[in-house]
Amino acid sequence: MTPAARLAAAASVLDSIAQGRQPAEAVLKAWGAANRYAGSKDRRAIADRVYKVLRARGRLVWAMGGREDGRALVIGSLSLIDALPLEEIEALHSGEGYGPRPLSKQERARITAGEGDLPGWVSAGLPEFAVEDFKTTFGERWTEEARELMAPRAPIDLRVNALLTTVADAEAALHEAGLSPEPTPYSAYGLRLASEPPPNVQALEAFKAGHIEIQDEGSQIVSWLAGAAPGMTTVDYCAGGGGKTLALAQAMQAQGTLVACDVVQKRLDNIRPRLTRAGVAADLCLIGQNGGGVEDLNGQADLVFVDAPCSGSGTWRRRPEDAWRLTAEEVERLHLLQVRILGQASQLVKPGGRLVYVTCSMLSRENEASVDAFEATHSDFTPVAIAQALGDSGLTDAARTELAAKADGHRLRLSPACTGTDGFFVAVYERAA
Ligand SMILES: C[S@@+](CC[C@H](N)C(=O)[O-])C[C@H]1O[C@@H](n2cnc3c(N)ncnc32)[C@H](O)[C@@H]1O
């Protein structure tokens, strides 16, 4: 494909992403499958352009006078991000072959006008509605938090399954496979791989044997500080894909009772092969939206882990398209759902047991506001300081000290800017005995 044809393809992929709800990665994969003439270098170049645009989308829409179509965004990216002079952009838009048609007068005017003074939300790269939330939460650091969340490519973190292997052996196996893993700074079981070139982790023998799982270090940290231990009755109330279920099983050294719940049967079904691969067992339990189906566990659990449904805004560095799909109304719906789920899940905690609330959101409406609402109506749950919760967990000694310092009492935020992880929020409680 010519460079111009790649641009036209990127514009069409961007339009498909904007029209649907599918992850950008899936849309790119589908495009590749439907256009077999495109070689691996073409697909790579198209993906690079698509992600370049998605990470800077707010700024590009602004620069192109409010236009949101793929063509306009690609043109904007050539000018603003690649800093190509007008003549080169015109040469790429000659309309010949499979390239995009020539620039219109308005398009030419837009890219020669420059950006002018950008409103804060545009330069920070966040959707407009999220800015107030970021300002309230992060104060002066809000633009740095926003930039780190939207800009860089995220590394691939692995969790070593200590039930089946050791970190040293997993590291050696990865080196043998030609990769260069580095220990993660916080999780004692984490190994980090560069995202470029993208490693095919699922094809590795170590993955097939259940020795490693893909899990962001932030997700490992929140799993470790939940305090799961051998012999406990642990309920993973919103188990979803089971990523944290597996980490909780590891912390329990596969001893005790682990119950993974969700309201979607298909998600529970998908956990089964992961459990088998990791060599652990869990009871899978379908619950109703009102929390029905686990009544026999009322007041029985040592630990209830609530990884609540959320905007996923903590993972925008991996899925920048999600930032532009989220609305303030959706955040409000999620906040109400989170408060309801916390109330339901808390009933399962036994006196003296622990309740842990987690999101992968950066927004205070889904974090502090949701636990504020829970705390206001559940005086039988007392906060457990993060410094105390960190206890005897899968974290390095240095990490324990650092995370305790970053905590706000019983609440802790992780983020790309602050911990180099995806964005997470965690709050820890103990039920009065
Ligand atoms: C953030 S995801 C969980 C991710 C998962 N813990 C992991 O680490 O892979 C939230 C999950 O909550 C589930 N969910 C939604 N509403 C729920 C409810 N009322 N009760 C329990 N789970 C719910 C969703 O189906 C989704 O799988």
From TrEMBL:
This protein's record includes keyword Methyltransferase: yes
Pfam families with a match to the protein in the record: Methyltr_RsmB-F, RsmF-B_ferredox
Residues noted as binding S-adenosyl-L-methionine in the record, renumbered to the chain: D262, D307
Single Gene Ontology BP annotation: methylation
Annotated active site: C360
InterPro entries hit by this protein: MeTrfase_RsmB-F_NOP2_cat, MeTrfase_RsmB-F_NOP2_dom, RCMT, RsmB-like_ferredoxin, SAM-dependent_MTases_sf
GO molecular function, one term: methyltransferase activity
Keywords: Methyltransferase, RNA-binding, S-adenosyl-L-methionine, Transferase
Residue ranges of domain SAM-dependent MTase RsmB/NOP-type in the record: 146-432
Family matches, as PROSITE patterns: SAM_MT_RSMB_NOP (PS51686)
Protein name: RsmB/NOP family class I SAM-dependent RNA methyltransferase
Origin species: Brevundimonas kwangchunensis
Lineage: Bacteria, Pseudomonadati, Pseudomonadota, Alphaproteobacteria, Caulobacterales
